[in-house]
Q: What sequence folds into this?
């Protein structure tokens, strides 16, 4: 994907609650507004407004399912001035009304609510800084592509440091950071082609800032309270852990924060045996 357009998609993701003006987005991209919209659609496959609307509606679907906000509140949060406009857009996106959608999700929620999730805890995390790369598609495939790409780019750093020495001492031992997978979308809601996965590695802020000088994409992952659970085995077991954790949060007094959830891989770099892989899941709460 065009790096300038990718920068715009990241901005949109982080400002869904704000008014998003095409002129502002075109300035972020570095393209003239006369050409920006066409270049965006060429790269993303949909217009900038369609992309923004889809992300807002996907976020709203979670609020509809949880049922803790009124339809007016959800509509306003999604950028609609009236519930009627929101209802029409929701039905166009998901093929059903919010009420019917909420009912269809009850079975899934009730199923996972019955699970005895014994390894859930609430933890406090500091903000962390990461290098990352993004891939689109089903999580199983996209995660493998993303991790292969990021590993290849990091393995090439030795040669790049010889050509352009780092300004600080770089200690990029994988054991000193975190190996993180950011799953932005619920596969039950988002089309496979539009599902976003970020492969990310955290180190100190100074190291991450320095890696940005070598054309790595960087960002931070918010600190604060997280609900955390753990599972061991292949990533095919992830569904039970993810939905079990979400059901637990919905039944608790906690609320979801508007930040992405993520997985932390504890030993994936040490073993190729899927049955031995250990993974923690973190969902931001308040």
A:
């Amino acid at each position: 994907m065009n790096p300038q357009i990718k920068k715009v998609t990241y901005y949109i993701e982080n400002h869904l609650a704000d008014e998003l003006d095409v002129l502002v987005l075109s300035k972020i991209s570095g393209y003239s507004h006369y050409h920006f919209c066409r270049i965006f659609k060429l790269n993303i496959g949909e217009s900038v407004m369609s992309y923004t609307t889809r992300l807002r509606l996907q976020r709203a679907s979670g609020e509809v399912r949880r049922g803790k906000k009124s339809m007016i509140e959800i509509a306003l949060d999604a950028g609609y001035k009236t519930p009627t406009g929101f209802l029409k857009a929701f039905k166009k996106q998901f093929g059903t009304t919010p009420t019917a959608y909420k009912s269809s999700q009850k079975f899934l929620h009730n199923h996972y609510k019955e699970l005895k999730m014994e390894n859930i805890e609430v933890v406090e995390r500091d903000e962390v800084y990461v290098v990352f790369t993004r891939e689109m598609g089903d999580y199983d495939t996209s995660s493998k592509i993303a991790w292969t790409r990021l590993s290849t780019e990091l393995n090439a750093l030795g040669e790049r440091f010889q050509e352009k020495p780092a300004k600080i001492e770089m200690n990029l031992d994988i054991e000193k950071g975190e190996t993180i997978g950011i799953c932005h979308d619920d596969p039950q809601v988002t089309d496979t082609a539009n599902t976003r996965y970020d492969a990310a590695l955290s180190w100190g802020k100074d190291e991450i800032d320095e890696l940005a000088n070598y054309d790595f994409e960087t960002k931070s992952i918010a600190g604060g309270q997280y609900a955390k659970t753990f599972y061991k085995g292949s990533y095919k077991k992830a569904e039970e852990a993810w939905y079990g954790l979400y059901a637990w949060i919905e039944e608790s007094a906690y609320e979801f924060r508007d930040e992405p959830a993520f997985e932390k891989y504890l030993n994936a770099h040490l073993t190729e045996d899927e049955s031995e892989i250990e993974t923690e899941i973190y969902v931001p709460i308040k």
